[in-house]
Amino acid sequence: MNPSPNILIVDDHPLFREAMALVVTTEFPGAQLREASTLPAAVECLTGGPVPDLVLLDLNLPGVHGLEGLAQVSAVTPEAPVVIISAEEDKQLILQAINAGAMGFITKSAPRERMRQALRQVLEGNIYLPPE
Predict the structure, then answer these.
(1) Helix axes 68-76, 39-48, angle to 10 degrees
(2) Which end of the chain has fewer CB atoms < 10 Å from its terminal CB, N or C?
């Protein structure tokens, strides 16, 4: 695992991007972070820069329905693992996301320690599912 991973955070809420950045940099002090607030900005970031070690993708971005965002990100950089981040906690949706290629699913209500554990697990090449 890269001790200073390159991570793209895609979320339309600046405060949540900031919170995720804090979780990432606490767990991986040398992490290189990029942020995008829309799916088109994320796609531009992915096509214009190095392939990230991890993409943290909000499920409910404006103008994006269901798992469209995951499909688009995976189409642009199939080698980058994507973890869905969502306020949704529906088991069916979580399974659909994993079946569609997500390497993990983190609920926005998860405690910080669980988020850090999920990031580490996915960066080590494993799939992360919420314990519940």
Answers:
(1) 10
(2) C
Q: Name every residue whose Cβ is closer than 8 Å to that of residue 39 and which is 6 or more positions away in sequence.
A: 10, 61, 63, 64, 68, 69, 72, 73
Sign for the pseudo-dihedral over CA of 18, 35, 88, 78: negative
For residue 80, how many other CB atoms are within 10 A of its CB? 19
- Element (H or E) spanning 85, and its range? strand 82-86
**Report field, pTM of the whole predicted structure over 0.90:** yes
Give the 3-state secondary structure of residue 80. Answer: coil
